[in-house]
Amino acid sequence: MSEHRSLPSVPRHIAIIMDGNGRWAVQRGLPRVVGHENGAKAVRACIEGCAELGVQYLTLYAFSQENWLRPKAEVSGLMSLLEKFLHENTAELVAKNVRLQAIGRLTDLPAPCQVQLNRAIEATAGCNGLTVILALSYSGRLELIDAIKSLLREIELGHIDKAMIDPETFSKHLYTRYYPDPDLLIRTSGEMRLSNFLLWQVSYAEFYVTKKLWPDFCKEDLLEAMEEYSSRQRRYGAIHEG
Ligand code: IPE
Ligand code: IPE
Ligand code: MG
User: Fold this and answer.
1) Would you say residue 84 lies in a domain?
2) Cα of 95 to ligand 1 centre, how many Å?
3) Is residue 67 annotated as a catalytic residue, yes or no?
4) 90 CB less than 6 Å from ligand 1?
5) Which of 40, 97, 130, 159 has its CA 20 to 30 A from that of 54?
6) Is residue 114 part of a domain?
């Protein structure tokens, strides 16, 4: 990363759709799982970059609910990789003061993954630097449905009056209730879609799409995305005169 460039505004929360691992491998005549292995290396670099640059929250789309529909071998390869990644990196996360969290239907994950995930979450619970949120078995639509169910329960119990439901109340029932909305949404591999990621939360996030495939995404690319973000004018529907 070039140190001389100044960053006018650092996004508080960056969310990334880490896409293109499979294509990265296929281009090299390698099995897709090798693409995922190299994707895991890019995750490490990205966490390091965000921590260095003072980003407070980083949400990484690591595995969608729809990804369960991939061939069994790829799914089990990804799950083993997740387990290994957590096992091998937890100590370093603690050393870097990084807190790990996760969102999604986490009970869908194989038991050994859940064990490693809970260990990593517990081990990093006291860290107060960057918060990394892994989206695992995640679906934006299911998150909204889960939020509605949770709200209905609260209404039935008489804890909430349905007339009082507003965006703020609703947000408190999402998996992401502890985190601010993303400011910057990055997608690699050139695809221009959300793929069911954080449907509610990205309402006013700035989009940045790069053609780079995820295993090639490095700190320099992160910096480029942040520079582009700094040049954007966020209007939130308002008009700024003058
Ligand atoms: C992203 O890479 C990783 C996951 C979805 C788990 P892909 O596996 O989607 O790679 P492409 O899009 O097929 O290249
Ligand atoms: C989105 O990528 C999910 C993750 C990056 C984990 P996909 O590769 O699954 O999305 P589509 O199929 O291109 O929409
Ligand atoms: Mg993909």
Assistant:
1) yes
2) 29
3) yes
4) no
5) 40
6) yes
The total domain count for the chain is 1
- Sheet containing strand 206-209, strands side by side: 99-103, 131-138, 57-64, 13-17, 184-187, 206-209
Q: Look up the CATH number of the domain holding residue 65.
A: 3.40.1180.10
Show the domain range for 204: 13-139+182-230
pLDDT value for 241: 75
216 is catalytic: no
Compute the average pLDDT of residues 100-124: 98
Q: Whose CA is nearest to atom 2 of ligand 2?
A: 19
Question: Is residue 191 a part of any domain in this protein?
Answer: yes
Nearest ligand to the CA atom of 81: 1
Residues 125-174 have pLDDT tens digits of: 999 999 999 999 999 999 999 999 999 999 999 999 999 999 999 999 99
203: tokens are: 């309402």
pTM as predicted: 0.96
Q: What is the DSSP string of 135-192?
A: EEEE-HHHHHHHHHHHHHHHHHTTSS-GGG--HHHHHTTSTTTTSPPPSEEEE-TT--
